Amino acid sequence: MEDSLLHAKAEEVAEAFREELIRLHGSLGVAWRLLMDPEGRGVLTRQQWMRRCEEQDLATEDDAALVFLAMADPHSERLFFEGLDYSTSTDLARYTLSATLRDLSTAVLERGGASEVFRPARSCERRY
To answer: Which residues, in sequence order, are CB contacts of 14 under 8 Å at separation 6+?
Structure first.
């Protein structure tokens, strides 16, 4: 199959796959966490992806390969949650950053200033 036709087919199959996951699980995030990445690593190799699809009976081998082609990072040949659902992963990153900044500002206020929060760690002394 010609490259552009293959990629078009892969995108078509990937979109149908996403829609089915949302229909079955309510969101891509839930489906990712429960079905694809129960260990919480955040990334799947092609082999792991194919195995998950087979174990969970999510797609035929050909369709699973097309979905991986459409969604995986072409440089690392790995599938990150961002490839499945960029919008949700962006929202999650914003939330995580916001929570981290909130925690940091709380720590600065509670400890009397940035110099207390960012003080260099004490070096470990060797005791013999």
So the answer is: 66, 67, 70, 71
Structure tokens, 11? 């995108």
Alpha helix locations (H) across 26-120? 28-31, 46-55, 61-71, 81-84, 86-110, 114-117
Half-sphere exposure of 39 (CA within 13 A, CB side): 6
Q: One-letter amino acid identity for 15?
A: E
Output the pTM of the full model: 0.64
Give which of 111, 97, 110, 12 is closest to 62, Cα–Cα.
Answer: 12
What are 11-70's pLDDT values in tens digits?
999 999 989 988 998 988 888 888 888 888 888 999 999 999 999 898 999 999 999 999
In sequence order, what are the residues at sequence separation of 6 or more whose Cβ sits closer than 8 angstroms to the Cβ of residue 61? 50, 53, 54
Of 26, 39, 91, 35, nearest to 67 (Cα)? Answer: 35
User: Which pair of structure tokens corresponds to residue 30?
Assistant: 């839930």
User: For the chain, what's the residue count?
Assistant: 128
